[in-house]
């Protein structure tokens, strides 16, 4: 665990200690009934589904033989690619994510990241098509994979496993490795929640996310298998359905406003 001074922590913000709720509206049920909170939790739930579908499809699609909807990469190649990407991604999240959230607000970064997930999914059929044209993974496919992993770095700025809450009164904030995690949606949750209910709301959000992360592997892998076996839309049905879910998620994300955006609007 690392102790960080609030003044130097790129995610620390006085806005996070303020609640949009009136003093009398402080019960868990009343917060869950709040329209803004409902939209935030809906966004979190959809994003958890999209994120897990993507995590499942990467090794599944990359390892599937060329000619039946995949790239035919070996386990060693997949592990090497993801290992290198993991180091680069960690560097970016630690050094860039916090500053971006401080500058633009959690809601803006979340919307931005959602669009990048749509771009990530768009690379699957393109890399497959290029591999089938050459009978193997060729230069074009490698370039698409590189673009996909580049998009994924920005997509990972979306939400985190730890709730980042920074009260005004705190002199130090112990966040462990939270700065390196996907934090924007958690900042939005913190901004919208009374501080004495943050643990309960975060637990509720994590529960909803866990349900989606339970459903997503079966959903995405089964859909991938059916799409290829039945050759529905040339095997691309799985991507079309996930594109639709991404677009729905982007539509819901438009309803989010961070404290920073609300302050600019009222100025």
Helix content: 55-70%
User: Over all CA atoms, what is the radius of gyration?
Assistant: 20 Å
CATH fold topology: Growth Hormone, Chain: A
Number of helices, where a helix is a run of at least 4 consecutive DSSP H or I residues: 9
Sheet of most strands: 2 strands, antiparallel
Q: CATH homologous superfamily - what is it?
A: MFS general substrate transporter like domains
| Large-scale geometry | globular
N-to-C series of helices and strands: EHHHHHEHHHH
> What's the pLDDT, averaged over the residues?
77
- By secondary-structure content and strand pairing, the structural class works out as mainly alpha
Low-confidence stretches: 1-19, 160-182
Strand content: under 5%
Task: Summarize the helices and strands and which ones pair or pack.
Layout: E1 3-5, H1 28-33, H2 35-63, H3 75-104, H4 106-134, H5 139-155, E2 172-174, H6 184-192, H7 198-230, H8 237-253, H9 259-266
Antiparallel strand pairs: 1-2
Structure, explained:
It is built from nine helices and two strands, in the order E-H-H-H-H-H-E-H-H-H-H. The protein has 267 residues and is mainly alpha-helical. The protein has a single domain (3-261), classed as MFS general substrate transporter like domains (Growth Hormone, Chain: A, Up-down Bundle). A two-stranded antiparallel ribbon has the order 1-2. Helix 2 runs parallel beside helix 4, helix 2 (35-63) packs antiparallel against helix 6 (184-192) and helix 2 packs parallel to helix 7. The longest helix is centred in the C-terminal third of the chain and has 33 residues, at 198-230. It is globular and about 60 Å long. The two termini are 38 Å apart.
């Amino acid at each position: 665990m690392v102790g960080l001074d609030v003044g130097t922590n790129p995610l620390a913000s006085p806005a996070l200690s303020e609640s949009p709720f009136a003093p009398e509206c402080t019960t868990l049920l009343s917060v869950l009934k709040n329209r803004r909170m409902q939209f935030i939790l809906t966004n979190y739930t959809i994003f958890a589904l999209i994120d897990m579908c993507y995590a499942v499809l990467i090794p599944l699609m990359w390892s599937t033989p060329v000619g039946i909807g995949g790239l035919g990469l070996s386990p060693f190649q997949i592990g090497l690619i993801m290992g290198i990407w993991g180091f680069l991604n960690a560097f970016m999240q630690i050094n860039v994510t916090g500053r971006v959230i401080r500058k633009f607000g959690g809601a803006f970064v979340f919307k931005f990241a959602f669009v990048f997930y749509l771009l990530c999914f768009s690379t699957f059929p393109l890399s497959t098509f290029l591999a089938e044209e050459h009978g193997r993974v060729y230069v074009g496919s490698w370039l698409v994979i590189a673009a996909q992993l580049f998009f994924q770095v920005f997509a990972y700025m979306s939400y985190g496993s730890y709730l980042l809450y920074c009260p005004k009164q705190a002199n130090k904030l112990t966040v462990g490795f939270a700065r390196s995690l996907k934090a924007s949606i958690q900042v939005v949750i913190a901004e919208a929640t009374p501080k004495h209910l943050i643990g309960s709301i975060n637990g509720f959000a994590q529960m909803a996310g866990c349900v989606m992360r339970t459903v997503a592997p079966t959903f995405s892998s089964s859909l991938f298998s059916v799409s290829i076996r039945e050759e529905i839309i040339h095997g691309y049905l799985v991507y079309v359905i996930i594109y639709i879910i991404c677009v729905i998620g982007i539509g819901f994300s438009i309803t989010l406003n961070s404290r920073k955006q609300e302050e600019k609007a009222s100025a």
